[in-house]
């Protein structure tokens, strides 16, 4: 089970944001953004952010249509 913050980070990573971009968007430190990403990776037993993105869009297929490079 992931926290609300981890879920937000999960979504942002799936949309292609870096740790720095996640940190800026959520007004948190880069280290905190990185830790959230690591926590989510561990909870899903993944090793790569690309795996998170694939999993996110499998769980939320409608989100793929809403995602753009400029989001």
What is the chain-wise order of helices and strands?
A: HHHHH
Instruction: Determine the number of helices (DSSP H or I, runs of at least 4 residues).
Output: 5
What is the typical, i.e. mean, pLDDT?
A: 90
Global shape: globular
What class would the helix/strand composition place it in?
mainly alpha
Helical residues, percent: over 70%
Radius of gyration: 11 Å
Count of strand segments: 0
Task: Describe the main β-sheet briefly.
Answer: none
Strand content: under 5%
Structural notes for this entry:
The protein has helices at 4-14, 19-26, 30-44, 49-59, 61-66. By secondary structure, it is mainly α. α1 crosses α3 (30-44) and α2 (19-26) crosses α3 (30-44). The model has no long low-confidence stretch (mean pLDDT 90). The longest helix has 15 residues, at 30-44.
Structural features:
single chain; about 70 residues; 5 helices; mainly alpha
Compact summary:
This protein has helices at 4-14, 19-26, 30-44, 49-59, 61-66. The chain has 71 residues and is an all-alpha fold. Helix 2 crosses helix 3 (30-44).
Can you lay out the helices and strands and say which pair or pack?
Layout (H helix, E strand, L loop, with lengths): L3 H11 L4 H8 L3 H15 L4 H11 L1 H6 L5
Helix pairs in contact: 1-3, 1-4, 2-3
């Amino acid at each position: 089970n992931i926290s609300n913050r981890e879920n937000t980070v999960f979504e942002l990573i799936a949309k292609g944001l870096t740790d720095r971009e996640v940190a800026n968007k959520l007004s948190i430190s880069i280290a905190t953004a990185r830790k959230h990403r690591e926590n989510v990776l561990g909870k899903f037993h993944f090793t790569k952010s690309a795996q998170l993105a694939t999993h996110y869009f499998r769980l939320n297929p409608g989100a793929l249509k809403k995602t753009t490079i400029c989001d």
